Amino acid sequence: MPLDVNLLYGEMVASWFAHLAIPVAAGMAITIMPYMMPMTKVFALIALSMLFSFICQFIFLTVLQTNTCGGMKDYGGVTMGAMLCAVITGAMVAIPGFMEPMRLVVSQLFGDHKTLLTPELARMNDLITKTSQDVMRASLGVQKGGAITQEEYDVQTFQEITTGASYWAAFAGAYGIGLGSLLAAKCPSS
Questions:
Q1: What pLDDT score was predicted for residue 110?
Q2: So where are the chain's domains?
Q3: What whole-number distance in Å separates Cα of residue 71 and Cα of residue 130?
Q4: What is the band of 82 on the pLDDT scale with cuts at 50, 70, 90?
Q5: Neighbour tally for 60: CB within 10 Å
Q6: Who contacts 178 (Cβ-Cβ below 8 Å, separation ≥6)?
Q7: How far is residue 50 from each of residues 74, 158, 183, measured CA to CA in Å?
Q8: Average pLDDT of the segment spanning 48-74
Q9: Cβ proximity of 44 and 30 under 8 Å
């Protein structure tokens, strides 16, 4: 049987949506764990996202092979396709984990990014905020809410990484199905 392209495109869309949720689910699982160093959290997010991606892609590619080949004929092709997808997902989740601009371009759409301030800068920030609100009743572009602690900054950064990872992983999911189908939709000759 030929590859059902409509099924392939449908699975690409489904994988896109599933991969939006995968880093969020992985991030929630990581935040309930006992305290971890920020970089350990990033590596755990990548690993869990790859695991969830493999499972998700294995299911999608199994359906694709079953439809294309009239049954499950080549577990190796499906496994290799799902592994390829998981590696792509891991690479895409690493982008916001290690490249701050790529993390902030997505995460700032959903929330403000607060920078760490020294005690002196925090005092100046509070003074400027109060003065600007008193004089103009408008913000002059200063950070609202004052300084945040290192722990609050780490939590904020991990939330931003998770948000960015969700965006990047969605594209990895769709692209991964396309590439994985090259391996999974090959029907062995009978």
A1: 73
A2: 5-109+162-184
A3: 69
A4: very high
A5: 28
A6: 8, 12
A7: 22, 17, 18
A8: 92
A9: yes
Q: What is the pLDDT of residue 141?
A: 52
CB 89 within 8 A of CB 173: yes
- CB atoms closer than 10 angstroms to residue 6: 8
Question: Which pTM does this prediction carry?
Answer: 0.77
Beta-carbon contacts of 67 under 8 Å, excluding residues fewer than 6 positions away, are: 1, 4, 7
DSSP the chain: ----HHHHHHHHHHHHHHHHHHHHHHHHHHHTSSP--HHHHHHHHHHHHHHHHHHHHHHHHHHHHHHHHTS---HHHHHHHHHHHHHHHHHHHHHHHH-HHHHHHHHTTTSPPPPP--HHHHHHHHHHHHHHHHHHSS--SPPTT----HHHHHHHHHHHHHHHHHHHHHHHHHHHHHHHHHHHTPPPP-
Instruction: In whole angstroms, give the CA distance from residue 78 to residue 24.
Output: 25
